[in-house]
Amino acid sequence: MLGREQFVGKYRRKNRGSRVVLYAGGIALFICICLCIAVFLYLKREYRMVACREFSDQHVSAGEELGRQVLGLANDMRGGVRDIGGMTESNLEKRIRYFANAVVKREAFSHVFYVSYDGKYYADDSALVPENSDTIHEACKVFEELDYYQDGVYVGMMLPLIDPDVRRIMIVTRVYRNDKVRGYAVGIVDTDRLFDSPLFDYQKSRGKCFVVDSMGKIMSQTAALSGSHGDSFKEGVLEQCRDSEENRNALSGIKYALTKGESGYIMVKTLEGLDMQINFSPVRGVPELSYLCAYTPGFQDEMFRPMLFWSVLACIFIMVLMIICMLMVWANAKRINMTVEKLAYEDPVTKGKNLSYFKEFALERIMNSPEKEYAIYRFDISNFRYINESYGHIRADHILESCIRNFTQIFTDEEICVRMNSDQFLALVINDATLEKRKNEFRAAVNADSRGRNIKYPIRFKTGIYFVKKNDHDIDTMIDHANVARKSVSRDTKDLEATYSEKIVDNMRKIDRIESLMHKALTELEFKVYLQPKWDIVNDRVCGAEALVRWCRPDGTIIPPDSFIPIFENNGFVEQLDFYMLESVCSILKDTIAKGGSVHPVSVNQSRLLLHSPDYVDNVANIIKEYDISPELIELEITETVFENGREDMIRIVKELKKLGVRVSMDDFGSGYSSLNMLKDVPFDVIKIDREFFAGAADNAEAGVILRKIVDMVNELGRQVVCEGVENAGQVELLKNMGCSCVQGYFYSKPIPAPEFIERYFRS
Ligand code: C2E
Ligand code: MG
Ligand code: MG
Q: Model pTM?
């Protein structure tokens, strides 16, 4: 058995079509967004890598060009001074001056000069004359001690001895005479001119180029690092970037790689949080110099920004398309869902909800509000068949529709009312202090609607109630219980409501048992005619009889009519039984007459259902004709309550019956709301005073007066009065005094089996 929560869960899981589409769409969209972000990040990374590679490639080519340039200058120097070694002292100065001027003009040298091994100094015209030519001489000696003073050529930075503030490099080449060093030719190169080559344009447009010595001192630059005034590359970078451990380590890495002759790049974070790429490579042939390029921070991203922009735009476009498609699918699914829901849950007659809806959601509401007390109401409209037949089904349908509409307006949103079928309704209501008020308003509103549509018949609801208990979770059982209660409501009761109880269940079981046996009982002749005499108290003799049914079970038990007639009236079987009784009485009379007996009129009780059947009068006529007995011998007893509804039709039927020649009596006069109009309008032959009413009149003086007047009135109208339930001689005397001539009661005889009655009263 499912628990409460599982039940609620089960009901919630249903009806989620469009939500599934929405969830699936949402998940797909989320995946799409994630994919787009991943693609974006991937593209950004790839574009950066491409940029880094490109920067690196360009850097390497530019670095190589730088080396080529410097070595080219060194070669030029070496070629130019080759013949100087053998010259005489007198020619030397002239020759050197000529060479120096030519080289300075032709090449990138700013100055060229010669210094002899013993310290004599010759310069070009531009006359870079050191304050102390001895210093240069000394410097040249220092070069001799350097490892990389190869092939007699030194290419390196200006020694601090000479001119520490000027950023220039010097190319020194030995001049030999007879394999002995005669002197040194020295070329000074203005380093800024090194970047004149178009090969550096790429770097210059994207960043700043630097030639740095082995100590990290900037020898040459296309532009200063922003904010930097010193000549240390590392400090310059750190001024522009965060002085973080990471950045410092990266910069130290440059130095380490360069000492190993490697090239590469690092990334540092600027103060603005941008990535700055720094490429480095040694200058080929000049071990002391390195070529560095610091690219504009964030430049890689900028380069590919348009591409990224379009990629992202394409993604957004695809996503928007997806969202539109998803919304369209969702809207469509919702529409389909609504149509399906409408088909599944709508009642076409009332345009309200149907039983499926009730079963689906009533339990959910009960479960969701455990603090509230709920009740299931199972109701139908009393005599709806009559309304349908009398006013037509369109007007009758309006009443059904009015029930749902008014319920929705009067009851709360938490309460549900649906039509199950025909005039059967089912409602879930909250059993609170105002329930009665809501019910009354509902009844009044439906009746007002019905009167508004010219339906004069009062709308009454026959209702079965089941109060929902805390541990109830089976909606079908709850509905069944309410229905059992509804079925227990008898037509005759004023209050057309019943609440489910064990007593009702027992009763229903009894009813079920009776209903299961009744058809067989009729065919097997278990229903027997008992007759009770009607007594003429004036002449003290029998004057008639009433046929009363008894169900004689094969086991010998005799069931009285009160135990089964109301059930048969409810299920309609009473029609068959009444015709059977009428036929039996006709047959008894015919037999008795045939046997020469003297018969008196016999009255047969007629159920109200018979009177509603359209061919009732014809059927009575046919039976009488079939048995060929005088119609005056048959009296039909109709209970007075039958006339409360559909009075006109009843009057018509009584008149038609009278035309057949049968007698018609009003049974149980005084038991209901007897009206004098009825005496006036309906041409009854006999008025049977109800037993209870008569008993009251015997004990109570006022009731006695009323009874006397009724008897007088009926006598004066020329009709017969029969008083039921006469049990003693005193009552006989009383009635005789009142002018009542005919009585029926135990005082004379109880109802007895027909053969016994015939034997006793119908013998000739
Ligand atoms: P009813 O037609 O008013 O019948 C009179 C009832 O009063 C009978 O009860 C009868 O036995 C009882 N009675 C008569 N005299 C006395 C008396 O002095 N004292 C007391 N205490 N009761 C007396 P019964 O036979 O139990 O019938 C009950 C009701 O069942 C009838 O009331 C009638 O309405 C219905 N009924 C009986 N037979 C039939 C039938 O064949 N068809 C239909 N439709 N109804 C029937
Ligand atoms: Mg009767
Ligand atoms: Mg009666």
A: 0.54
